[in-house]
From TrEMBL:
Residues 11-280 form the GP-PDE domain. This is Glycerophosphodiester phosphodiesterase. The lineage of its organism: Bacteria, Pseudomonadati, Bacteroidota, Cytophagia, Cytophagales. GO terms for molecular function: phosphoric diester hydrolase activity. It comes from the Bacteria. One of its GO terms (biological process) is lipid metabolic process. PANTHER family: GLYCEROPHOSPHODIESTER PHOSPHODIESTERASE, GLYCEROPHOSPHORYL DIESTER PHOSPHODIESTERASE.
Amino acid sequence: MTLQTASSIRPDVHGHRGCRGLYPENTLPGFLHAVRLGVDVLELDVVLSADGQVVVSHEPWMNAAICLDPQGLRIPAAVQQQHNLYQLPYEAIRRYDCGQLRHPGFPEQVLLPAVKPLLRDVVEAADALSMQLGRSPVRFSIEVKSEPAGDGRFHPAPTVFVAAVVTELRVLDLVPRSSLLCFDVRVLQECRRQLPALARCLLVEDALPFEEHIQALGFVPEVYGPRYDLVTSELLAETNHQGIQVVPWTVNNLDDMRSICALGIAGITTDYPDRLLALLAR
């Protein structure tokens, strides 16, 4: 792909945490609505439970803004991290509700009871719906929520964390249609060692030069995932030269979507896949 022809390429639509602008994030109803809308890729986050289950959740704890405790009560923000998923078996995790509190940043959300699902439940439900709709199965962008300060507290060290996720991907036969995303270079390095066939995406949220990020990672990833306002024609020239796809996050404004599309990128991650799909259809 050249910069001269890139703007004519339709970017893949990545539904961020399902479709966070429309349904509660990282829940089965949100993922299934995104599939019905016609997303190409479901973007989601994974953590580990105390019993080693791969759970879909952005935080490794129960976010007080969107989750109710097993008694249906609000969780005080000051103690939300005490509801640590890494210290709870999945049977306990599924007793929390994370679908009936509207995220303060997304007033259009449809609210309904929903638990934090297992990765396998999301994949099986999405694939079943795709088959029912007569469509090809969606792909998955799976972000591993890891940072050095969380080792041993909110998640295991990268070797163990990646092994658990890789095992699940193999069991689900998901490797050919998924990528593993992370801000933590240790996770991507470990993924490269344990499962070289799996596509890797380096997530970036700072303005450090592209080459510095690649040097810190130690290899060239298949995908580069910058915050959307960091995407420039210069960055795309560098990534195109090295054969790296660019999938920026999280693009919700229509004007930003138009600008990003005009630059020519492989995909766009958005909380509002309905908006992006309508724009691309036009």
